[in-house]
Amino acid sequence: xxxxxxxxxDEQDAVDMIVxxxxxxxxxxxxxxxxRAAVESFRVSPTDVVIVDYLFPARTLTDGLEVISQLxxxxxxxxxxxxxxxxxxxxxxxxxxxELRKIIKANRYFRKPLDLHELVDTVRAALQSIEEKxxxxxxxxxxxxxxxxxxxxxxxxxxxxxxxxxxxAVDQAADEL
Amino acid sequence: MTPxxxxxxxxxxxxxxxxxxxxxxxxxxxNPNASxxxxxxxxxEWSHALATTCRVGEIDFDLFKHNExxxxxxxxxxxxxxxxxxxxxxxxxYLIEYVGIHHSRALTTGDSIQLTxxxxxxxxxxxxxxxxTCDAKLSRIVQDIRDFRPHLDSLxxxx
Lengths: 177, 159
Prior knowledge:
The structure holds two protein chains of two kinds.
Chain A: E1 5-8, H1 12-24, E2 29-32, H2 35-44, E3 49-53, H3 64-74, E4 79-84, H4 93-104, E5 106-111, H5 116-133, H6 137-145, H7 152-158, H8 163-176
Parallel strand pairs in A: 1-2, 1-3, 3-4, 4-5
Helix pairs in contact in A: 2-3
Chain B: E1 4-7, H1 9-12, H2 22-29, E2 35-39, H3 40-55, H4 61-76, E3 81-83, H5 88-102, H6 109-125, E4 129-133, H7 136-144, E5 152-156
Parallel strand pairs in B: 1-2, 1-4, 2-3, 4-5
Helix pairs in contact in B: 3-4, 5-6
């Protein structure tokens, strides 16, 4: 738990290779081959960076983009690196990275076979970026509200029925410390 | 000089709930000429309270997320500044000793973190910080301990 990076690819060999490479460089990481298990493990212990394969066998989630969408809803302040050998071969990596960034805010796209040294450098840069931004809660909060906002006034109305319970729960939470 | 307020969890909750302190809390947080800050601990205590309320079935997961988003919305808009706890624990330990032993007043672990963070705010800004709380006991500690005076003032909001 509490690793910096999660690697998700349906091929165990690919996962093992990336995990090994990152770990030898001092980056803590864990590997997953099943998207659904990955989402659950991320719920328990979200990582700062996720390396995710674009395509999975049609058994669980549709593809890497769907996985990213689910992971983003759990922890918006996450950096994603998408890998695949099967995305539009006519697009160069820079154009593809730009396209993907627009859609899912993936940091980088890597075409297989992977250049592991470049991947490690990209992971390090992503971790550094997260480290810098996480010192500023406003950046974190901006990531949270990017997909939708709820005002304090709206939530006061929504909380009206349970305000007694919630007020007591807050006081109890404080007392527990 | 921009007035600085430090708000603890028991006061901040009235930003997201309707009650006696709600108007006062809104006036502080919606005032562009004031600065309102709190500790990272407040985020944890708020999540803890929401999770408890969700667990007993009083709110569903959607409302849990709505509440989280409302707080994050305030942070993103700059209405609330969240302060990191980096070295707070170390200093809070001294505060527990000082308040608990030298002044014979009970200071909970959470309150020691809140007070330490408020003192940090005052030290960093170099000005008086008003500690906003709905906890009468904590408010009295701020008021009664003379050493806090040049740094902290207390604003007590009865619930």
